[in-house]
Backbone:
């Protein structure tokens, strides 16, 4: 259920954002909220496996992973937000996933 | 890198929502028939679920509930509910507002979808229009597959003080009438009675009772159940 909702939400969000630019107030609201990904990371239970493993990632790479999951950003959007080339963002995510997988196994 | 390892990383990207376009379509096509891949996706979802669980529950505003109720109530109007749902899916504001489409939004949608799956598109197994002695419609009973029954009064009943309205159903003359429950004079009511049968020509009636084990009071309305076409 969660997974279905989240995938459809992300797709809906992406489809919509391609069709129109976000109104100014939404952009402002998004800036005000700061980086939701990092906020969520801070709220993860201390000692939880996911937190422990995310902590082992380089902070910027961790933010990349969290931006994808939490804010539903695409590779391109993550690259822009982290200020790195698209290819770098992609390989950061892939390597982070490999690292997480090993840590969570 | 082995294929299995590549698959597992793709599964991770899929769960992160990073697969797009043809890659996403191809992944989902494979996912439908590949158990190992499905298991990899499930594992990643479990891992990342901790993030969803950090979301604070977000109470739905009165306005949103109003919309949900309206769309549920208007299910007969074919176009209305889909349009509401479409608006909800496609509204950037809604999803940005729901912040990260995590537990809060999911819970809300679970409720909305629950309503849509259950009450929004309820297909009554049987409906009985109960009529008064003057053959005017007095109340409607609908019985659903989940065992719930709803009763909607269509008129105000005159209930003397100390008496109460009781809904009965009869499907077996040998067994006699079985009480469904007590009803308020003017309000709709809902009963959970999975133990009762739901069959064509089953009789429903409302009587005025002191409160007792068998219907002894006057019959107010009565009707036969029929299966909706």
Residues:
């Amino acid at each position: 259920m969660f997974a279905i909702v989240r995938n459809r939400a992300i797709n809906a969000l992406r489809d919509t954002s391609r069709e129109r630019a976000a109104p100014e107030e939404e952009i402002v609201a998004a800036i005000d909220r700061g980086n939701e990904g990092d906020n969520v990371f801070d709220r993860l239970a201390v000692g939880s496996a996911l937190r422990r493993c995310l902590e082992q990632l380089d902070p910027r790479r961790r933010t990349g992973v969290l931006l994808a999951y939490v804010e539903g950003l695409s590779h391109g959007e993550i690259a822009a937000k982290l200020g790195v080339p698209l290819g770098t963002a992609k390989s950061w995510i892939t390597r982070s996933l490999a690292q997480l997988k090993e840590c969570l196994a | 890198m082995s294929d299995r390892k590549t698959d597992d990383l793709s599964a991770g990207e899929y769960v992160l929502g990073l697969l797009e376009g043809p890659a996403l379509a191809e992944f989902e096509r494979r996912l439908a028939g590949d158990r190992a891949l499905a298991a990899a996706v499930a594992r990643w979802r479990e891992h990342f679920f901790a993030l969803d669980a950090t979301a604070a529950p977000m109470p739905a505003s009165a306005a949103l509930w109003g919309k949900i109720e309206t769309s549920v109530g208007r299910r007969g109007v074919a176009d209305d509910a889909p349009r509401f749902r479409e608006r909800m899916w496609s509204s950037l504001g809604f999803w940005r507002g729901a912040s990260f489409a995590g537990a809060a939004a999911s819970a809300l949608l679970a409720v909305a979808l629950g309503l849509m799956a259950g009450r929004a598109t309820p297909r009554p197994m049987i409906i009985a229009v109960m009529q008064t002695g003057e053959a005017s419609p007095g109340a409607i009973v609908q019985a659903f597959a989940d065992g719930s029954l709803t009763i909607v009064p269509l008129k105000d009943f005159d209930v003397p003080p100390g008496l109460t309205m009781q809904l009965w159903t009869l499907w077996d003359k040998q067994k006699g009438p079985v009480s469904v429950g007590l009803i308020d004079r003017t309000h709709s009511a809902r009963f959970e009675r999975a133990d009762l049968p739901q069959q064509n020509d089953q009789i429903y009636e409302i009587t005025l009772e002191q409160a007792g084990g068998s219907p002894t009071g006057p019959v107010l309305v009565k009707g036969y159940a029929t299966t909706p076409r």
Notes: Residues 57 and 104 of chain B are 5 Å apart (CA to CA).
